[in-house]
Amino acid sequence: MTTTPHQRILIVDDNPSIHDDFRKILSPPESSAGLDAMEDALFGPTKPRASRESYELDSAGGGQEALEKVVQSMQNDRRYALAFVDMRMPPGWDGLETIEKLWQVDSDIQMVICTAYSDYSWEEINARFGAADRLLILKKPYDTIEVCQLASALTKKWHLARHAHLKLNQLKGMVSEQTQQLEITNQKLLLEVQQHRAAEDRYRLAETGANDGLWDWDLANGKIYYSTRWKTMLGFADDQIGDSPDEWFERIHPDERAVIEQVREDHFVGKSDQFRAECRILHRDGQYRWMLVRGVAQYDDSGRALRAAGSFTDITERKMAEDQLRFEAMHDSLTGLANRVKLSDRIGDALCRLKRNSEDRFAVMFLDLDRFKVINDSLGHLVGDKFLIEIARRLAGFIRAGDTLSRSSRDDVARIGGDEFVLLIQDVQHESDVLHVAARLHTALSKPFMIDDHEICTGVSIGVAIAHEHYGSVTDILRDADTALYQAKGGGRNCTRIFDPEMHEKAMTQWRTETELRQAIERNQLVLHYQPVMAADGTLAAMEALVRWQHPTRGLLNPASFIPIAEESELIVRLGRWVLRTACRQLHEWLRLFPRHNGLPVTVNMASKQFALPTFVDEIVRMLGETGLPARSLRLEITETVAMRDAHATMQTLLRLHTLGILIDVDDFGTGYSSLSYLHRMPVNSLKIDRSFVGSMADDNVSRSIVQAIIVLAHSLGVSVIAEGVEKPEILHLTSAMGCDFYQGYFLSRPMDAADATRFLETARPNNRNVQQSAERLSKPNAA
Ligand code: C2E
Ligand code: CA
Ligand code: CA
To answer: Euclidean distance between the first and final Cα of the chain, in Å?
Structure first.
């Protein structure tokens, strides 16, 4: 039980005896206190006991003092519950005034106003204090019981009111604390809502802003939320796509569907960290778009996927760029045909099939345009490029139209070098199949091409390798086809050769020869032989230098067995320099030995590569300077084909040589295609009729007519004529009767080594006509 503290009562009265009276009435009797102590001793302090009010009495002699005490009680927090206030306390404040003042300080004090007279009526008092439920009136003289009742009731009332007040305050405090708490919570919530909203806005912004389409899959109900962007990426409006997984998976390209579903399932059972795949998805326009699909799943405790979300990224452009790059890496940029890399791939595949099934035979065809270089040089690279593009177009068309090429694709035609094309021919059963295809190719390519108003005709050489299962690699097949092509090129225009192992042998020999020839030049194994050029009167007009190779094991080799090989590379240039220098030195030696031959020139054969060197003329000048030979002692032979190949450039070189005084003969005349207008303007000294016409003119009317025509032509152009390959006396007579100027051939003299040639010179009679004759021609106005 809580012990109520003593309630404080203030007695305010100007009469001290009244204070004593109140003390007697309200103080507990001594005996009762002693009884209580005994009771506590007997039954213990916890025993409940009827409450007996005990008050702490305080006295004030007037209103002023009372006010001071109340003020003090407030400061000490020992407040008065009740005050008995005398009505009349002259000369100080009267009772009502005092009460008024006291209440201003502590409005909770219960008041009893003590009065003997009706100084104020109840109504008056009421009017003054309002509905004063805190004020009672006690009439004098006091009744003891009445005082006790008033004290007890009013102090209790004060206590209850105070308790209620405290409770209320406490409650108010609690409420305000709660309210504050609520407010904080509210603020926090508001903040959270705002943040949430911002996040949502950001998400929505990101969703619309991002190029990615989003999906969110609730695996419990099997529904997928697809974002608007997801739908527009596939060409659909928001309401045209539902929430079924089919909207997605039914649109995957059939080739990729199974794989994608596998990747997805793997992730849904936790085998992968992420669901990620690239696949084609059908757009509303009927085309497929490449998408990068990404997603992650959430799992429950048992590891089962509950939900998955992710994105779609359109990677079509990247894929197309990749395809383009891949295409470019595999194709020739000029013609769009497959390149060597792609071709090797295709042949590799074909070889694999062949190894699995020996029926799957195929052939590789190497094509080389016969006159591409001429076209390129004479008409320019732009025309050359257009020409190649046209060739490519014709070949591609040929492959498409080919009835025997049922399995061929566009990538079976490749361009692997300047004018080198390769065809992969599938489904080859016999050699005759290949020859049939080759014949059709020749026909297809022999039709003229119209490029920028130029009508261009070309032939093509074809080398073929027919594959068999013993081929080890693609390279081997290509090598053999190339070897066959090399043979085909040697076989004249529009020629086809099918590879056979002998060719390989031959090719190997050639390769060995090239290596050995390189050494031969360094090791001085080359020698020059000399063949005289005679005039009709038997005088010596010139000596032609003809190279030989004193091979350490194979003996003396004729130029036919190594010159063509040397011509394939830069070797011919080195060889040519050696020949020139050696011939000049030799002639210089002869002129020293035989001064009467001072008009004798040495004739040197020029290869086209040599002639095309930009430094060619300078080299000749240097060589003449070194050997001390006059320019008129050197005659150069170029073949008709070389002369006409790049007629304009040739003309420039010939003019420079002519200015120096060097004479030019056109060799093998009649085998090439001369432009008469060029020939007419070229500063040449003589035409050498090819020995094939000369050799056969005795029994061949056509050859005889040709020889006759060349002689007439040469003379009309003001140049002399040499007949080479004169083997029999009747040929000499025939040509001489036709007016030929000079002769060369076994009948007159075989080519001789230097020693024999020197002996020949000892007895030979010099001829000076050619010098005079050319001097005559060069003085004519049309010569240059
Ligand atoms: P070419 O310039 O037409 O030389 C004439 C060839 O005919 C020589 O063959 C010669 O031995 C041969 N010959 C001469 N008279 C007769 C004959 O009455 N009947 C027959 N059937 N042949 C005869 P060779 O020396 O074997 O030269 C062959 C070719 O090699 C030459 O043909 C020339 O084109 C080339 N050649 C020779 N030496 C050189 C050289 O130093 N440099 C270059 N670039 N080519 C050379
Ligand atoms: Ca010659
Ligand atoms: Ca010749």
So the answer is: 149
3-state secondary structure of 222: coil
Cβ of 484 closer than 6 Å to ligand 1, yes or no, is no
Kindly report, residue by residue over 443-454, the tens digit of the pLDDT.
988 899 998 888
Least trusted range by pLDDT, from 237-246, 395-404, 488-497, 530-539:
395-404
* CA separation for the pair 399, 393 (Å, rounded): 10
- pLDDT band of residue 138 (cuts 50, 70, 90) is confident
Q: How far is the CA of 68 from the centre of ligand 2 (A)?
A: 154
Please list, residue by residue across 324-357, b when 16 or more beta carbons sit within 10 angstroms of its beta carbon and e when fewer do: eeeeeebbbeebbbbbbebbbebbeebbeebeee
User: Which one of the ligands is nearest to 751 CA?
Assistant: 1
Average pLDDT on 483-496 reads 84
Identify the residue whose C-alpha is closest to ligand 1 atom 25. 546
CA distance 456 to 376: 11
pLDDT 10s digits, 262-302: 999 999 998 998 889 999 999 999 999 999 999 999 998 88
- Is the beta carbon of 547 within 6 A of some atom in ligand 1? yes
Cβ of 746 closer than 6 Å to ligand 1, yes or no, is yes
Tell me the CA–centroid distance for residue 638 and ligand 3, in Å.
9
Cβ(308)–Cβ(217) below 8 Å:
yes
Q: What is the rounded distance in angstroms from the CA atom of residue 300 to the CA atom of residue 314?
A: 31
Nearest CA to ligand 1 atom 43: 605
Which pLDDT score is estimated for 42?
Answer: 53
Cβ proximity of 387 and 372 under 8 Å:
yes
**Using a 6 Å cutoff on CB, does residue 531 contact ligand 1?**
yes
Is 259 in contact with 276 (CB distance < 8 Å)?
A: no
Q: Is the pLDDT of residue 425 over 70?
A: yes
CA distance readout (Å), 768 to 3, 92, 316, 505, 771:
165, 177, 83, 50, 6
* pLDDT tops 80 at residue 121: no
Hey, which residues does 546 pair with through a beta bridge?
529
Q: Is the CB of 560 under 6 A from ligand 1?
A: yes
695: helix, coil or strand?
Answer: helix
pTM: 0.48
The amino acid at 500: D
Q: Is 691 in the pocket of ligand 1 (CB under 6 A)?
A: yes
Counting ligands in written order, the one closest to the CA of 665 is 2
**Of 445, 387, 413, nearest in space to 332 by CA:** 413
150 lines ligand 1 (CB under 6 A): no
- Evaluate whether 544 touches 597 at the Cβ level (below 8 Å): no
Which is more confidently placed, 614 or 635? 635
